[in-house]
Design goal:
This protein is of the alpha/beta class. It is built from 15 helices and 17 strands.
């Protein structure tokens, strides 16, 4: 788990205070009523103030209820600190339950000792602690809290954040259950686990074999709940719902909650969701203010690769994620980038979990600069140094666009999301426009302008369909609401602002001889004319001018 110990569950609003400032200024997290052990871990991580979603969610999650605790359905943007928003109250409550259980055991032991002394017998000795790794002493794990995640990477990230938060908590154990890992290793780590972070498939496998019992789970959390409810997990979630029927609290977190997903989510809440508390910090229609979003038309796949090459050589780039549509496209694109001198690797669902872990670890360590991935990386990858997200292939679902671009601009930094589209992508672009209620304004780059005519996206928008993500909304959004175009300036450039000014990978090949002959990438020499983005005070690109004569 060492490669996943990235402390990114909170949004950093300021630098960590000095020792004198810590004494003089009260910790804002203390106002949330959290345990001292958690406050100490938060201070060690350098976080000073809770984010908006943490400020609103933690008190509601800790609020007592006649039947337990409040059920919550929380919607907030990616990178807003949702992970800590559910980990903090769950860990706080587990600490309280652990303290109560320890008090009961101590009282029972004291009574046993007193009875022995009253009978004139020597005081009994406490039994030696048995190793949970010894199969002779095996007992099924009985966690008190369960966190479900749709992908392995997200589950490992959540578990790493939880481990960071319990560093001062004695006896509170965290375990991860994901597919692609050895069973015996996970079974050993399950012993005495209080909080289990799992993907549904492997969790039910271990539950059916008696390795874990879920009848004592008090808190069930679904992270990225929209994906959980829409990825074919319906049968698995129904089974988990039955196995944890005695739970006191259910919480669902996601950046997006379509109406259909909300209806599915309410089915696993107490009383059909009649008493659920809904928290909406922001909506998908409220675009990320710190992420500049740009669209570029491409005439052909070769043209699109030249545009990709241009952006991957951006002097302001630190690390980037390039999203592809298929596993085959992902592998071929990563291989081409490697042949042209980029430190690039692929990431998709067909890879073994060990390989996925190694490549993500290399990305976090800075040994990899370009990650070419399918939508398996759209959730759960939390690396603050990712400055660019490039949509080489558009997502199948409009809401996945929001999750993709949320991989950059983490922890209060600035980011750039570039979409490269062909004429065949107009319908998907229209769906994204309808979902986000924002208008794409195409841009061009000198020397890489498209030669084909691309009609406005609005003319190609399909008719509204009831219940479809983003469909049914007028292109202009709410009456009288201001429209915001993609490509409009959104603040300062990313150079500075917490990013490295120089990449650690060194200079890349500058000659055309360094490229494979079959590669679609352009030589390192830029197209004619000065690069707009690299010049202070100049716009990065110019608006696309559609000419009917083309």
């Amino acid at each position: 788990m060492a490669s996943y110990e990235e402390n990114t569950a909170f949004a950093l609003d300021s630098q960590a205070p000095t020792a004198t400032e810590t004494v003089a200024t009260p910790n804002p997290f203390a106002a949330l009523g959290l345990a001292p052990e958690l406050l100490a871990a938060i201070a060690d991580l350098g976080f000073t103030e809770p984010t908006a979603v943490q400020q609103r969610t933690v008190p509601l999650a800790l609020e007592p209820h006649p039947e337990g605790f409040n059920d919550l359905m929380v919607s907030s943007q990616t990178g807003s600190g949702k992970t800590a928003a559910f980990l903090l109250p769950v860990l706080h409550t587990l600490l309280g339950m652990q303290a109560e259980e320890a008090a009961r055991e101590q009282a029972a032991w004291d009574a046993k000792v007193a009875a022995a002394l009253a009978a004139g017998e020597p005081a009994p000795k406490k039994p030696r602690r048995r190793s949970p790794l010894d199969t002779r002493h095996f007992k099924p794990a009985v966690p008190g809290a369960l966190v479900l995640c749709p992908t392995r990477e997200l589950a490992q990230q959540v578990a790493a954040d939880a481990i960071d938060l319990v560093k001062h908590c004695r006896g509170l154990r965290i375990a991860t259950i994901v597919g692609g890992m050895p069973y015996q290793m996970q079974i050993a780590r399950l012993q005495n686990a209080n909080l289990v972070v799992a993907t549904p498939g492997r969790l039910l496998d271990l539950a059916s074999s008696g390795q874990i019992k879920l009848d004592q789970v008090r808190f069930l959390v679904m992270d990225e709940a929209d994906r959980m409810l829409d990825l074919g997990f319906a049968d698995a979630l129904a089974e988990v719902h039955q196995l944890t029927a005695q739970r006191q609290q259910t919480m669902m977190f996601s950046a997006t909650f379509a109406p259909r997903i909300q209806q599915l989510a309410l089915r696993v809440m107490h009383d059909g969701g009649s008493k659920v508390q809904k928290v909406q910090v922001d909506t998908p229609q409220q675009s990320h203010a710190n992420i500049r979003q740009e669209l570029y038309w491409a005439d052909s796949p070769e043209h699109k690769r030249r545009l990709l090459d241009y952006w991957l050589r951006d002097p302001g780039i630190d690390q980037a994620i390039v999203f592809a549509c298929t596993q085959i496209e992902c592998e071929s694109l990563a291989e081409e980038l490697q042949q042209t001198g980029f430190a690039a690797v692929s990431l998709h669902g067909a890879l073994s979990q060990a390989v996925r872990n190694r490549r993500l670890g290399a990305l976090r360590d800075g040994r990899v600069q370009i990650l070419v991935a399918t939508d398996v990386a759209a959730r759960g990858i939390d690396v603050p140094t990712i400055t660019h997200v490039i949509n080489f292939g558009l997502p199948m679902k409009a809401e996945d666009y929001t999750h993709r671009i949320g991989r950059t601009g983490r922890a209060g930094r600035d980011g750039l999301a570039v979409t490269l589209a062909e004429i065949r992508d107009r319908r998907r672009l229209a769906d994204i426009e309808a979902y986000t209620q924002q208008h794409f304004r195409p841009l061009t780059i000198d020397g890489l302008e498209p030669t084909k005519f691309f009609p406005p996206i609005q003319e190609q928008r399909p008719p509204a369909r009831k219940g479809a993500g983003g469909a049914g909304r007028r292109p202009g959004g709410r009456p009288g609401a201001p429209r915001r175009d993609f490509g409009e300036p959104r603040g300062p450039r990313m150079i500075g602002g917490g990013f490295k000014e120089k990449s650690a990978f060194g200079a890349r090949p500058k000659s055309a001889d360094s490229y494979r002959k079959e590669s679609a990438f352009q030589p390192a020499a830029r197209p004619s004319g000065p690069r707009p983005a690299a010049r202070a005070g100049a716009p990065r690109a110019k608006p696309y001018a559609a000419k009917s004569g083309r």
